Amino acid sequence: MKNFDVIVIGVGSMGAATCYRLAERGCSVLGLEQFSIPHTEGSHAGQSRIIRKAYFEHPDYVPLLNRAYCNWQQLEVLTNEKVYFKTGLLYHGPSHHPVIKGVLESASIHGLELKELTCEQSAGRYHQFKIPTGFKTIFEPDAGFVRPEKTIVLYHDEAIKNGAEIHTNERVFEWRKDSKSITVITDRNTYQCNKLIITAGAWAAKLIPQIHTRLKITRQVVLWVRPEKGEIFETSLFPCWLVADDKRPGALYGFPYLPKDMFGEPEGLKFAWHHPADETDPDKVNREVSEMEIQQLINEVAEYIPAVKHSEIIATKTCLYANSPDENFIIDHLPGYDGDVTIACGFSGHGFKFVSVVGEILADLATEGRTELPIDFLRLKRFP
Ligand SMILES: Cc1cc2nc3c(=O)[nH]c(=O)nc-3n(C[C@H](O)[C@H](O)[C@H](O)COP(=O)(O)OP(=O)(O)OC[C@H]3O[C@@H](n4cnc5c(N)ncnc54)[C@H](O)[C@@H]3O)c2cc1C
């Protein structure tokens, strides 16, 4: 039976970065992934993920984001590849909306640069939008998007270069700890390790029965379209955006038009609704997107970006959110295992921008037993 310092279950977003960080520190690492790396079954497919700092979800994320931004840059320097695209992000919404209030609060606490635009400025500079009078428009210049699949491949490759062993298409069925070590059983083999990290995304609760009732897995729909006059939505003219209104919980959001020669398939203007949708089992997801779902999303977005109404539909995708009860991440040692088992899950549809810092945090927790990064608000003790 092979023995490792650390085994990482799930080499998706968080797991790939973690394997790299551990291997870089000289640990013997085994990463186990049930599908290919990357893949389209979990939470990381779809070419782009918004990155922003004025965090309406909770101002305590901002110090982690500052570190994440540094680590994204470090990844780019290390690999000589571009993963972060600074397009800026426009927030639109009424001033009483929790999203708008949260953006302003985080920026004020942490001294972040934001620019408020008047209706006239907004309509002049960003004529692609039709924003109701009475809405606030705020621009965050350092925001943009990162590339999920590319990131995962880069971290995976760097982990391998640093000596990690990573197996694809190998599913973990079970793990257990005895007095000497931790045993991990897969559909192919049995392994042992001193420390275990579980970064299993939407499948986390299947491997961690203690958190089973804490995670709600939801099926999210994403759409890519080609609007008329696609050129006015190019990255140089059109930023990432988010609209929070009183008509629905959460927010609508989207990206500039990304061409396939730079970003791969599908080419187009991508958008979605950020709010937990219908609950599902990650092994039995309905991957078909209905005409009704498509039309509903188009109509909602077209209210704010009219060119979307008569656009050509290029692609649809389903993707999974793993929602914690308060929609904040869960990062901690699992109680009852003497600090030998670390879990990171419940990223609740907003975790990707943190990949570059979560890898560092998990490597800290597994190898040092602690981290200097401020994650207290993400620990399990917040739940009764
Ligand atoms: C539609 C959509 C839009 C999003 N937009 C944004 C955004 O704009 N900005 C942002 O920051 N975040 C965004 N997110 C959230 C972000 O993508 C996720 O929070 C992040 O990808 C979660 O990472 P993860 O490692 O937990 O999950 P994953 O990347 O899915 O990785 C988990 C891995 O574990 C593997 N695994 C599970 N069980 C086992 C097992 N038993 N054996 C072996 N392997 C196993 C899985 O196959 C998978 O590869 C979005 C998510 C979705 C779905």
Give a concise summary.
By secondary structure, the chain is of the alpha+beta class. 26% of the residues lie in helices and 29% in strands. It has helices at 13-24, 61-79, 98-110, 119-125, 148-161, 204-207, 260-263, 291-302, 355-367, and strands spanning 2-9, 29-32, 49-51, 84-85, 89-94, 115-117, 135-140, 144-146, 165-167, 172-177, 182-186, 190-198, 216-226, 240-243, 251-258, 268-274, 278-279, 312-323, 330-333, 341-345.
Which helices and strands occur, and which strands form pairs?
Elements: E1 2-9, H1 13-24, E2 29-32, E3 49-51, H2 61-79, E4 84-85, E5 89-94, H3 98-110, E6 115-117, H4 119-125, E7 135-140, E8 144-146, H5 148-161, E9 165-167, E10 172-177, E11 182-186, E12 190-198, H6 204-207, E13 216-226, E14 240-243, E15 251-258, H7 260-263, E16 268-274, E17 278-279, H8 291-302, E18 312-323, E19 330-333, E20 341-345, H9 355-367
Parallel strand pairs: 1-2, 1-12, 2-9, 5-14, 12-20
Antiparallel strand pairs: 3-8, 4-8, 5-7, 6-7, 10-11, 11-12, 13-16, 13-17, 13-18, 14-15, 15-16, 19-20
The protein binds flavin-adenine dinucleotide (FAD).
